[in-house]
Write a structure and sequence with these properties.
- This protein has 2 domains: about 150 residues, Rossmann fold; about 60 residues, no CATH class.
- The protein is of the alpha/beta class and about 240 residues long.
- The longest helix has 18 residues.
- It has a 6-stranded mixed sheet with strand order 6-7-8-3-9-10, with helices on both faces. Strands 1-2 form a two-stranded antiparallel sheet.
Length: about 240
């Protein structure tokens, strides 16, 4: 995986099980968000394949690829709402574009999705009136609009205060429990990782590889790789001492 001749991730292989929350983690620049974009078919990997329910999104023809993508809901880091549409219209947008439902049915669906993410009160607000946490909740509601069963979240807790982040973690867990979603979450926020992840894979920018996979607590407490322990225990790099004469 990479861009042009620049390789970000080499010989990386992992699976995500139905109904689990898998976290992709690692330091800045290790390729977490790029990997997510490869998974959803925005970019094509330099080599290898990506299978969704056994079907290749890399090798699929356009019609099959579009069908596979319909089963994926994506929330980008900023929420990526349209600034000229209110919250209800933003959540309804995929239904407007890809379904033949009547306006009453589309509005009802959008309102139900907003209630699922505890945003029912905000349907008439504009994106500029929303807090960071509200933007992300509205983005999750919109990602669910077409009936996906796999959700991909890019840095859902980034920029949020601890209470707002914890509330969003709770919403993610509730959606998994109540609706059976499979989640792939890109993040480096340690508390959220421990709150929500069933398993995690850790990317390393130096080796351009996956250097750890497992339950977060096991990676923190038992992984032999010092890079993994350093990340999970939030340890600084070794101090660099300089001498002058």
């Amino acid at each position: 995986m990479g861009y042009g001749s620049r390789v970000l991730l080499d010989e990386a292989s992992f699976d995500v099980r139905r109904g689990e929350i898998m976290v992709i983690l690692g330091g800045s620049g290790c390729g977490k968000s790029s990997l997510m974009k490869n998974i959803i078919g925005l970019y094509k990997p330099m080599a290898g394949d990506i299978l969704i329910d056994g079907r290749s999104i890399v090798k699929a023809a356009a019609a099959e690829k579009a069908l596979l993508q319909r089963g994926l809901g994506v929330m980008y880091q900023s929420g990526a709402l349209f600034g000229s549409l209110n919250v209800l219209e933003n959540v309804r947008f995929p239904l407007d574009q890809f379904t033949d439902l009547g306006m009453a049915e589309k509005n009802l669906t959008a309102r139900m999705l907003l209630r699922l993410v505890e945003m029912g009160y905000a349907e008439s607000l504009m994106p500029g009136e929303l807090s960071g946490g509200m933007l992300k909740r509205a983005g999750i509601a919109r990602a669910m609009a077409l009936g996906c069963d796999i959700m991909l979240l890019d840095e859902p807790s980034a920029g949020l205060d601890p209470i707002t982040a914890a509330n969003l973690d709770r919403t993610i867990l509730t959606l998994r429990t109540s609706l059976g979603f499979t989640f792939i979450v890109v993040t480096h926020e340690l508390q959220s990782i421990f709150n929500i992840a069933d398993r995690a894979v850790m990317l390393d920018p130096v080796s351009r590889s996956i250097i750890a996979e497992g339950k977060p607590a096991d990676l923190r407490d038992h992984n032999p790789d010092p890079r993994v322990r350093q990340f999970f225990n939030r340890e600084p790099d070794a101090a660099v001492h300089t001498a002058s004469s």
